[in-house]
């Protein structure tokens, strides 16, 4: 006996469709939604499968809507508005005491930064009720873009990929970290490996896997500062900084790691920073949110963070002025 599998419609598909209505271009719409064009095209096709009719005429440029697509637009806009209004109403009825703030964060930040940050005594309505999804950079972006979380906490640097610089996002700096180059140590406390090794000597390298291209690009920027190309030989890859750290502690190679996750190992003598400041890079810790999809608790939380950020910026300006004098 055969079963008929009904395709379940997702809110993200409706938002994708409205983006293509606005831009009339698949690549532009995909960029605005912060997903790849193939993934965006698949989601539009999934929506058409659910509706049972083509909504977009792909044979024209810029693209046009079919008759079914034109009819679908106002109802699609109404459904999206109603869904977000319903979510807000349900959350407000549930009351602040039952509201969870949902976060997506890089694994390193979820482990080493978030617990102390969210538990600060000056946080509003402390302790803040929250849930966390840990992911790599692109998955954090996807979660925020598709409305699966209220906030995303990630690293940011002016020379990193500008994934969140376009689209309906806003951000605040909530901390700083530094990418540093480390090596495991021998029984005397000296590093197992040195980047000043004789020319031609291969240095075992612990690298981030291709899925975490964000930190990889920043590491390439650091390497370009060195006086000669580093003869790195990749012996291990992982998307998790914690995994790279443990391999470095075991003496398997060198790795660029966020200082926040290795500072304890450095203090205990398991790891040592090599290459000095030239082989390091300061990075910001930023919290992002979508513009326009807000709830009462999330808005209050963001307002508190914005006020705190403004106060800290004011203190920095005063300190800089006093230093100049």
TrEMBL record:
Occurrences of domain HTH lysR-type (ranges): 9-66
Keyword Nucleus applies: no
Annotated InterPro entries: LysR_HTH_N, LysR_subst-bd, WH-like_DNA-bd_sf, WH_DNA-bd_sf
Protein name (record): LysR family transcriptional regulator
Recorded family membership: Belongs to the LysR transcriptional regulatory family.
Keywords: DNA-binding, Transcription, Transcription regulation
GO molecular function: DNA-binding transcription factor activity; transcription cis-regulatory region binding
UniProt keyword Transmembrane present: no
Pfam families: HTH_1, LysR_substrate
Species assigned in the record: Pseudaminobacter soli (ex Li et al. 2025)
């Amino acid at each position: 006996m055969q079963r008929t599998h009904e395709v379940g419609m997702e809110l993200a598909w409706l938002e994708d469709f409205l983006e293509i209505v606005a831009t009339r271009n698949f690549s532009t719409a995909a960029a605005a939604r912060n997903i790849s064009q193939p993934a965006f095209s698949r989601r539009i096709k999934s929506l058409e499968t659910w509706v049972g009719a083509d909504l977009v005429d792909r044979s024209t440029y810029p693209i046009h809507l079919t008759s079914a697509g034109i009819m679908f637009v106002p109802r699609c806009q109404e459904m999206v508005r109603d869904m977000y209004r319903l979510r807000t109403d349900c959350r407000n009825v549930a009351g602040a005491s039952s509201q969870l703030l949902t976060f997506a964060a890089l694994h390193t930040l979820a482990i080493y930064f978030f617990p102390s940050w969210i538990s600060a005594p000056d946080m509003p309505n402390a302790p803040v009720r929250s849930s966390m999804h840990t992911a790599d950079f692109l998955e954090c972006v996807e979660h925020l873009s598709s409305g699966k979380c209220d906030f995303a906490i990630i690293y940011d640097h002016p020379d990193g990929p500008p994934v969140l610089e376009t689209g309906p996002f806003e951000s605040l700096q909530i901390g700083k970290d530094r990418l540093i180059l480390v090596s495991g140590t021998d029984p005397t406390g000296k590093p197992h490996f040195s980047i000043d090794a004789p020319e031609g000597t291969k240095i075992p390298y612990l690298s981030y896997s291709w899925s975490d291209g964000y930190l990889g690009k920043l590491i390439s920027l650091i390497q370009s500062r060195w006086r000669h190309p580093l003869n790195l030989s990749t012996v291990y890859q992982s998307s998790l900084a914690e995994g790279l750290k443990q391999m470095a502690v075991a003496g398997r190679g060198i790795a660029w790691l966020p200082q926040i996750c290795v500072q304890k190992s450095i203090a205990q003598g398991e790891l040592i920073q090599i290459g000095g400041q030239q082989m390091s890079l300061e990075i910001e810790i930023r919290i992002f949110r979508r513009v326009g999809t807000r709830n009462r608790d999330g808005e209050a939380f963001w307002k508190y963070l914005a006020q705190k950020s403004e106060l800290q910026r004011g203190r920095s300006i005063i300190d800089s002025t006093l230093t100049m004098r």
